[in-house]
C-alpha cells in the first residue's frame, strides 16, 4: 500500500457524478446497485485509475490485470454512502482478493489517497506489520488480510524476481570484469536505488537470504 495521488477527477466521472447528485437529491431512495451497474463508462474509469495507481491494487499493490472482472472499489461502501457512489475521490481499483476482504467495511481503514500508509504500517520480511500503537494500521492489516498466505507468497515471488535480476546483473558485471568480486554488495545495489530500498526496508528477511546466496557465489569464485 502506498499513497495514491488522485488529482482532478477525469471528465467521464465528473459529468456522471453531477448528473447523479441531481437525481439523488430528488430521489434519495434510489436503487444504488442498479444505478452503478447501469453506468457504461466503468471500463474507461478502470483504465484511468490503473494509470494513476501504477497498475496495482490500491491496497495490496499486487499487479492488476484489466479485465471485465476487475472491480472498482468504493472506499466508502456505496450501499451505505449512496451519495459517494460516483464520487471520484471514493473510487479506487482493487484486486478481487482485497475487494472480497474489504466488502462493506470502512471502519478505521487506511484510505490510500488521504493517509500516508507508512505512518501506520511497514514491511518486515514478506510480512506487513503495524506501527507501534496504530489501531488504524492494525485494523487495516486484519480487515484486508494483508498477511494471508497468498499475499505473502505474491510478495516473496516478486522479491525473488527482483533479487534474481540483481544477482544476474552482478554476475554479468563480474564476467565482463567491470567489478571486482570483493566490491561491496551495497555499492551495486545503490545503482538501483529503488531495489535497494525495497530490499533493505521492505524485505529484510529475503535480503538476508539473498546476501547469503551471493556470499556463496563469491566464495565459489575464489
Ligand atoms: Zn489487492
Task: Summarize the model shown.
The protein is mainly α. The chain contains 9 helices and 4 strands; from the N terminus they run αααββαββααααα. Strand 3 and strand 4 form a beta hairpin.
Number of distinct beta strands: 4
Largest sheet: 2 strands, antiparallel
What class do helices, strands and sheet pairing give?
A: mainly alpha
Which ligands accompany this protein? zinc ion
Number of domains: 2
Point out poorly predicted stretches: 190-203
Major sheet: arrangement of strands: 1-2
Task: Tell me the span between the first and last alpha carbons.
Answer: 42 Å
In angstroms, what is the radius of gyration?
A: 22 Å
User: What is the count of DSSP helices, taking H or I runs of 4+ residues?
Assistant: 9
Order of secondary-structure elements: HHHEEHEEHHHHH
Question: How would you describe this structure to a colleague?
Answer:
The protein is elongated, with a radius of gyration of 22 Å. The strands form 2 sheets. Strands 1-2 form a two-stranded antiparallel ribbon. The chain folds into 2 domains: 11-107, no CATH class; 149-221. A hairpin with a 2-residue loop joins strand 3 and strand 4. The model is unreliable at 190-203 (pLDDT under 50). Helices cover 50% and strands 6% of the residues. The longest helix is centred in the last third of the chain and has 27 residues, at 149-175. It has helices at 11-26, 32-38, 42-52, 96-102, 135-143, 149-175, 185-191, 193-202, 204-221; strands at residues 72-74, 91-93, 121-124, 127-130. It has 222 residues and is mainly alpha-helical. Zinc ion binds next to helix 4.
Amino acid at each position: 500500500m502506498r499513497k495514491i495521488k488522485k488529482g482532478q477527477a477525469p471528465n467521464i466521472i465528473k459529468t456522471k457524478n453531477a448528473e447523479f447528485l441531481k437525481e439523488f437529491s430528488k430521489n434519495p431512495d434510489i436503487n444504488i446497485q442498479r444505478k452503478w451497474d447501469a453506468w457504461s463508462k466503468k471500463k474507461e474509469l478502470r483504465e484511468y485509475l490503473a494509470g494513476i495507481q501504477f497498475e496495482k491494487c490500491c491496497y495490496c499493490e499486487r499487479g492488476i490485470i484489466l479485465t471485465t472482472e476487475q472491480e472498482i472499489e468504493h472506499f466508502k461502501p456505496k450501499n451505505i454512502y449512496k451519495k459517494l457512489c460516483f464520487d471520484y475521490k471514493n473510487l479506487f481499483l482493487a484486486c478481487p482478493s482485497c475487494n472480497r476482504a474489504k466488502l462493506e467495511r470502512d471502519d478505521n481503514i487506511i484510505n490510500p489517497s488521504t493517509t500516508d500508509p507508512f505512518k501506520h504500517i511497514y514491511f518486515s520480511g514478506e510480512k506487513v506489520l503495524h506501527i507501534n500503537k496504530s489501531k488504524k494500521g492494525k485494523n487495516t492489516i486484519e480487515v484486508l488480510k494483508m498477511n494471508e498466505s497468498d499475499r505473502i507468497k505474491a510478495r516473496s515471488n516478486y522479491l525473488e524476481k527482483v533479487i534474481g535480476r540483481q544477482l544476474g546483473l552482478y554476475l554479468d558485471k563480474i564476467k565482463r570484469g567491470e567489478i571486482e568480486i570483493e566490491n561491496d554488495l551495497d555499492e551495486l545495489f545503490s545503482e538501483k536505488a529503488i531495489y535497494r530500498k525495497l530490499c533493505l526496508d521492505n524485505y529484510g528477511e529475503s535480503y538476508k537470504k539473498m546476501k547469503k546466496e551471493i556470499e556463496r557465489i563469491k566464495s565459489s569464485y575464489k
